[in-house]
Amino acid sequence: MKTEIIKMLEFPTKIAQGYIPFETCEHAGNFSPGDKGCLVCDAQLECKWLYHNDESTAPGDKPLDVIVGALGSALLYVDACVARVGHDAQTCRCDACDWLRRAQRLHDDAESAR
Most buried of the four, 3, 13, 14, 90, by CB within 10 Å? Predict the structure, then answer.
């Protein structure tokens, strides 16, 4: 299940990376908790999430509950993204809405297995 969750996190990672202005970011999209600029940046949410959850943080080494928590955060994030553009996640067939439905089932299964 852990491997499946890690694979599922690839989609929100790509979305979050798409919101980061790499060309103007002093840290090349790497969140720096001690930098006051990062704390007021419009991409702070995405950078923080990536800082804790992207592939460079060795997700396979993290405990299952941490990975499940990352998936829960990603669900909220992607849900907000699709709501912002007016999609009905229950009926829409776009990649993001499809991901939401699959990720929600996986998250529910992981939560019930704990």
Answer: 13
